[in-house]
Amino acid sequence: MSERDDIERKLTAALRDLAEARERVLALRRQMTGEPVQDYALSNWEGGVRLSELFGEKSDLILVHNMGTGCPYCTMWADGFNGVLPHLESRAAFAVVSPDDPAVQQAFARQRGWRFRMYSAAGTGLFADLGFASPEEHFGSAAMPGVSVLRKDADGSITRISRDEFGPGDPYCGVWHFFDLLHDGPGDWQPQFEY
Description:
alpha+beta, Glutaredoxin, 2 domains, 6-stranded mixed sheet, 35% helix
């Protein structure tokens, strides 16, 4: 057996282990009990809106926590969500929330060509209450990136059924996984607003 064949065999085994670990993570997530979430008063460039209104006719809401317009990483994730938006919305409501002022969000969304709904959580405890706040600022924001999946029950109550954090190499941005296939991986590459 050649060295390459040996590495291929080890790689196949490691990928199988990774798939099995992912299945265990998913099973554990489905066992978690939900946690109540208050009906926050958010805003966008059209005015005020309650968190409960973001569900529309859906029972589930994928709510992305975005650090705001100063973060090139959050911008890259959002660029990717824009492309899969119809697929996401065929199954659940989808929205992005950031601490930015609605006018800033609107200008940035237009510049990037984003089609998803954006809301401002400025002045609310949404980021802190849901565990996406940092004591330190990064890219000019104390908000941290991630996602909360919320469910609205028949009585109108909102429950968070799962959450995850975003970071380089996570499963929510395919760019990292393509770069992982390169000989030197991502190296010291960092996303930019423009290239």
